Design the sequence.
């Protein structure tokens, strides 16, 4: 008989996950199903944990039998404590790409097609046609070319854009015409029209997108950050936008979330705040990935989307 | 020696065209180069006319030697007088597709990703994440599947959308999963999420997009008209938007242009006016097409992009 691990769920969508798991497989052993972590949390039985990383981070040290943690988010940074524990960590891949490519195109096109300027004319009932720009032929700079970046690269290429990549390791996306390493980041920025940040939060990426990189972008440049907030120097970005060096910026990830209502980023010119909605976890899709991994776990096979603890993604 | 036809130019960009033509070929015989049509206009020599269709329409009957008219626009309706004259008419193809596909994606994404709602939250410095929609898996309805429509269809398909086509004749776009004829237009509208009008102005297309079609669209539907204004019943559209039956509309072409400042379309809820800028004629690209056709004309070869007088495109 196959080994049935005790599974716990710690997530804001815990009840929904429990229903989805029970529906998909009647022989799963659910232990704890919680949407917050109680102060005195302890669970000796749990062997497998499905969790939102910020909730899991508060609980994993109180789960002595833990062998495997499945994150419900793409970003697993909250779980990456030191020293490395003896359980393995798996992430989510393959479901954020289609959302992210539409998010990136939305806001590149918003600036390039001058949507706001047309709306300003409309409020005045003023017929004064403007000449919009075009993405075709422009160069998109992708800082971070993983699973999600590849999807964005392909969509941009489909519209006739060139794609340059800034990458710490992966160089296997054929849509990227030219790769740059972090030490070449200023040359990378100087080679592109638009910069899209999709970097994970690691020591190596902290403030990687800095004043030097931003200064190397062209004045019609647009910066979109949908990776992690720690990868971008927000003071340098604000300074660029205030003196009109860049055409615009879109921040999906913020230094603190919720962004406090007195944070100056809310009122920085041409800076749009999209409130961490670029690519959302849909519990149905996460549950499907988890159930597939549970089957592999039971069968003693390697799990999908394991996180390299040292690289952090 | 090759026959050198006398060429005239009637266009708002006449001087630019004259410079481009002279630059490209030193042996062209330029006759009239005008950016308006004088009241007493006459030109006995002109054999070939490059013109903005509205200007050309005022001049062609005063050009007795005319053999060929090259339009600078995609829409040639102003030139289609009756009875059919003995000169041939050529249009422009191949340069509007890349602009149009970006225009359509801009505004589909604008509504689907809820850009305006995020901006409203931002003006209040209010963190209250909304769940954006996604184009992937939705169905785009293309009313008019010619050269430009094919480019839009391919871009939509690249994002994982299905494409349905309403077409009078052409059925040769492999990206279109299902074709409908004009008599099936209500079923067509009922089968799609978004409707993009790219129809030419002909007798057969007048008010083809009418109240019945609009009523068959879903409440999250968006209508984008970038074909010709005569193909859409604007009163019916306004009525739909006012009672919130549709999520939005984008009108690139208007019943009269410039749109008068007291026209209610300026202030119809969720109706965006883009002032006939979806796909602009760049003189460099038009000149290239014309010069190529001049070579064919001299050599007695069939011209590119000839307009069928009866079909009107």
Sequence:
């Amino acid at each position: 008989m196959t080994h049935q691990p005790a599974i716990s769920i710690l997530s804001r969508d815990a009840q929904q996950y429990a229903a989805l798991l029970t529906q998909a497989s009647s022989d799963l052993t659910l232990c704890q199903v919680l949407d917050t972590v109680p102060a005195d949390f302890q669970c000796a039985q749990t062997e497998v944990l499905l969790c939102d990383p910020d909730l899991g981070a508060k609980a994993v040290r109180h789960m002595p039998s833990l062998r495997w943690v499945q994150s419900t988010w793409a970003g697993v940074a909250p779980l990456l404590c030191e020293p490395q524990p003896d359980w393995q960590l798996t992430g989510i891949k393959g479901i954020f790409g289609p959302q992210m490519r539409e998010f990136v195109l939305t806001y590149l096109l918003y600036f390039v097609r001058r949507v706001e300027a047309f709306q300003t004319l409309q409020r005045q009932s003023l017929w004064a046609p403007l000449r919009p720009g075009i993405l075709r032929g422009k160069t998109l700079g992708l800082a971070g070319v993983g699973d999600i970046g590849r999807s964005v690269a392909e969509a941009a290429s489909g519209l006739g854009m060139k794609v340059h990549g800034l990458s710490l390791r992966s160089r296997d996306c054929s849509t990227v015409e030219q790769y740059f390493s972090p030490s070449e980041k200023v040359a990378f920025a100087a080679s592109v029209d638009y910069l899209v940040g999709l970097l994970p939060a690691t020591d190596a990426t902290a403030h990687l997108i800095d004043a030097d990189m931003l200064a190397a972008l062209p004045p019609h440049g647009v910066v979109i950050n949908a990776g992690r907030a720690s990868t971008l120097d927000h003071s340098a970005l604000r300074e660029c936008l205030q003196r009109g060096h860049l055409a615009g910026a879109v921040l999906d990830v913020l230094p603190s979330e919720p962004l406090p209502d007195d944070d100056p980023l809310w009122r920085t010119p041409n800076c749009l705040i999209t409130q961490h909605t670029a690519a959302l976890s849909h519990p149905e899709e996460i549950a499907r990935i988890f159930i597939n991994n549970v089957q592999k776990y039971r069968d003693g096979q390697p799990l999908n989307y394991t996180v390299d603890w040292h690289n952090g993604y």
In short: The CA atoms of residues 38 and 189 of chain B lie 46 Å apart. The mean pLDDT of chain B is 95.
